[in-house]
Amino acid sequence: MVLHVLTAEDNAYFYMAWSMAGLLIAISEATSFSLFAEGSHVEEQLSSDLRRNLKFMALILLPAVINFVLVADKLLLVFGREYSEAGTHLLWLLSPASLPASLNLLYLGVVRVEKKLKNVVLVTGGIALGTLVLSYVLLPHLGILGVGWLATQIGVALAVAPKLIKRLK
Q: What distance separates the 2 farthest-apart alpha carbons in the chain?
């Protein structure tokens, strides 16, 4: 999408920041799949497993996000000054986006255990569609900062949070 709407150069800057932020998302994905594996064995403990995974994710992800935001420019400097200058602000947006994304991924872990595949399709489809639509609208106006991933993750997290809270009780 970035390449289609913007330039190859913008795409290169986007890709490096996206790859860095992907390291944060990997934490959430691994935790979500762990929750799915644990919950599949003993579904009665799903709420306590969810609580433990939320704590673990907060313990690992919050400091990682803070560090990424603080050193975003230096992380991207590894790829060159141009990447640091063009991608730092994007990494500032993508790093905190891993927090609502973590809730979304934990929710996906829960509904997979509960075999609610319709919810899996709705959440993943909503994230994909929201990101594509927002990006298509915002990229021409905001450049690579217009990737609609943060807004979409927040919107979906607001929708699934009450369901996670209900599951925790």
A: 52
Going residue by residue through the chain, which has 169 residues, state the pLDDT in tens, using 9 for 90 and above. Answer: 767 778 888 888 888 999 999 999 999 999 988 888 888 887 788 888 889 999 999 999 999 999 999 999 999 999 999 999 989 999 999 999 999 999 999 999 999 999 999 999 999 999 999 999 999 999 888 887 888 888 999 999 999 999 999 988 7
The span from the CA of 24 to the CA of 88, in Å, is 15
In total, how many domains does the chain have? Answer: 1
Domain extent, residue 6, equals 2-168
DSSP structure class, residue 44: G
**What is the pTM (predicted TM-score) of this model?**
0.89
Contacts of 156 (CB under 8 A, 6+ apart): 100, 104, 123, 126, 127, 130
Report the C-alpha gap between 29 and 27 in whole angstroms: 6
Among the listed residues 100, 122, 110, 102, the one whose alpha carbon sits nearest the alpha carbon of residue 43:
110
User: Which of 1-35 are b and which e, b meaning 16 or more Cβ less than 10 Å from the residue's Cβ?
Assistant: ebeebbeeebbbbbbbbbebbeebbebbbebbeeb
CA atoms of 34 and 3, how far apart (whole Å): 34
